[in-house]
Amino acid sequence: MNCIITTAVKPGSALEEAANTIAGQLPAPFVARGSQSLEQIKVKYQAEVIIAVTRKGLVAHTPGGDFFFHPSMAELRIKNLINGKDDHMVNAMGLQEGMSVLDCTLGLGTDAIVASYVTGVPGQVTGLEAAKIVALITGNGLRNYQTNSIDAALRRISVVNADYQHYLAGLPAGSFDVVYFDPMFRRPIASSSNIKPLRLLADNRELTTAALQQAVRVAGKRVVIKETRHSSIFAGLGIQTIVGGKYSSICYGIIETGRTKCSD
Ligand SMILES: C[S@@+](CC[C@H](N)C(=O)[O-])C[C@H]1O[C@@H](n2cnc3c(N)ncnc32)[C@H](O)[C@@H]1O
């Protein structure tokens, strides 16, 4: 994917410096914005994606729309938890303060933020993201985005740009309490304005039995997979315990691994 890094117009030296650093990290060419429109940059450099470093954060301009970090439903879900309501993901994970979670499919980090809020300061949430641009933008957002009340939960999440297939294989048995997957492949392309640019940037591969076996080895307590209710993936992967809201189209497959973490 041909990607260019630039800034907002009239960036100032701090934004230009940040853009140059990101260009070096990705790596991708940096283009000084000057008075050029994004469209002009796109045509001149034949770029599919332009990442603009702005005062509000990073924005990836893609053919499918703009992709930028925002906590999405995380704030509302956390508010509901505070008000004593259930969260199906939290229940499926059996999540409690102090637990460790490996979110193998970080995406925008919404589920990881909720997990980080529940596991709290003594807990640990690590988010893996295979797509470089998604890992960059979500990682940057989790470090810098200002929310109304859940900044601490964002800041505690460790982001790793890695493919779970390789990452899981390198982890000791039982090294996380919960290993979580929310893969892309079930989502229809035009389902929502947020998903369309994500789908273009994301790793769209399916969850395989081999990766699931590694997850079962790594999870001290549970492996949880988010899916659509009538998906055939649960049967395909041999998962029998499926939970979720009665009227929700989303549900969670659970594999109890029955071990405890190495550190327990
Ligand atoms: C549906 S999104 C996850 C959304 C996330 N649960 C949230 O709350 O925002 C799936 C993400 O997993 C990533 N992904 C897919 N396969 C992966 C792999 N093998 N390793 C790491 N990340 C992967 C995709 O790039 C995509 O960003």
TrEMBL record:
Keywords from the UniProt entry: Methyltransferase, Transferase
Domain of life per record: Bacteria
GO MF term list: rRNA (guanine-N2-)-methyltransferase activity
Segments forming a coiled coil: none
InterPro entries referenced in this protein's UniProt entry, alphabetically: 16SrRNA_methylTrfase_J, SAM-dependent_MTases_sf
Name of the protein in question: Putative SAM-dependent methyltransferase
Native source species: Dendrosporobacter quercicolus
Higher taxonomy: Bacteria, Bacillati, Bacillota, Negativicutes, Selenomonadales
